[in-house]
């Protein structure tokens, strides 16, 4: 065969391929079904239906599980809110009870002061006042309240000492020269700073 004839045959084959109709997938499926064994088709259909039912059951189970978890979450959130409210009420109750107990002890101190003032004007009430002061100090001690009473020459602590003025003193410069009024602290928290004068060192 000459080269010219071979080229012509190739062109004819290409024209035939280009002119061939496209195969329709649906038609191909119909042909496959028509050629298949009916029992095989029935088994495949049954398998597909079973798979669909399984998928539907799984989806329904999943939805039910999601709803159950959402309900559990809502209950837990409600329980937590109720717990917080109970704890807040408990703290308020304990705070009120502690305040009541403190006031009761202070009332005893006040009653003793009233009795001291009811004495005759000429009576020496210093002993009674001292007793009442000791009683009051015991109340403060029970509440973990301690006094702040820096000695002369103590380093100045701005957190615990309130400076009234700077004065001439034989104490080192910048240290406490004299205590004017004690301070008080409770559990390391300063309730009232001690009032002091500070030495100029002159």
UniProtKB/TrEMBL annotation:
What InterPro entries does the database record attribute to this sequence?
GrpE, GrpE_CC, GrpE_head
An annotated GO cellular component: cytoplasm
Query: Coiled-coil stretches, from where to where?
Result: 45-93
Q: Which organism is it from?
A: Haloglomus irregulare
User: Where are the annotated segments for Disordered?
Assistant: 1-38
- The protein in question is named Protein GrpE
Q: Where in the cell is it found?
A: Cytoplasm
Report keywords, A-Z.
Answer: Chaperone, Coiled coil, Cytoplasm, Stress response
Cleavable signal peptide = none
Q: What does this protein do?
A: Participates actively in the response to hyperosmotic and heat shock by preventing the aggregation of stress-denatured proteins, in association with DnaK and GrpE. It is the nucleotide exchange factor for DnaK and may function as a thermosensor. Unfolded proteins bind initially to DnaJ; upon interaction with the DnaJ-bound protein, DnaK hydrolyzes its bound ATP, resulting in the formation of a stable complex. GrpE releases ADP from DnaK; ATP binding to DnaK triggers the release of the substrate protein, thus completing the reaction cycle.
């Amino acid at each position: 065969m000459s080269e010219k004839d071979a080229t012509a045959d190739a062109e004819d084959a290409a024209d035939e391929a280009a002119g061939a109709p496209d195969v329709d997938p649906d038609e191909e499926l119909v042909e496959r079904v028509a050629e298949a064994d009916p029992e095989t088709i029935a088994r495949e259909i049954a398998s597909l239906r079973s798979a669909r039912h399984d998928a539907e059951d799984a989806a329904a189970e999943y939805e039910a599980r999601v709803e159950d978890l959402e309900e559990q979450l809502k209950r837990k959130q409600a329980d937590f809110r109720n717990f917080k409210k109970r704890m807040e009420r408990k703290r308020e109750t304990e705070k009120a009870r502690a305040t009541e107990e403190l006031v009761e002890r202070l009332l005893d101190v006040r009653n003793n002061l009233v009795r001291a003032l009811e004495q005759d004007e000429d009576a020496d009430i210093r002993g009674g006042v001292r007793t009442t002061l000791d009683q009051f100090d015991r109340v403060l001690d029970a509440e973990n309240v301690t006094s702040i009473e820096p000695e002369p020459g103590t380093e100045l602590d701005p957190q615990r000492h309130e400076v009234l003025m700077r004065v001439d003193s034989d104490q080192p410069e910048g240290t406490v020269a004299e205590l004017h009024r004690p301070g008080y602290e409770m559990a390391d928290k300063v309730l009232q700073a001690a009032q002091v004068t500070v030495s100029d060192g002159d």
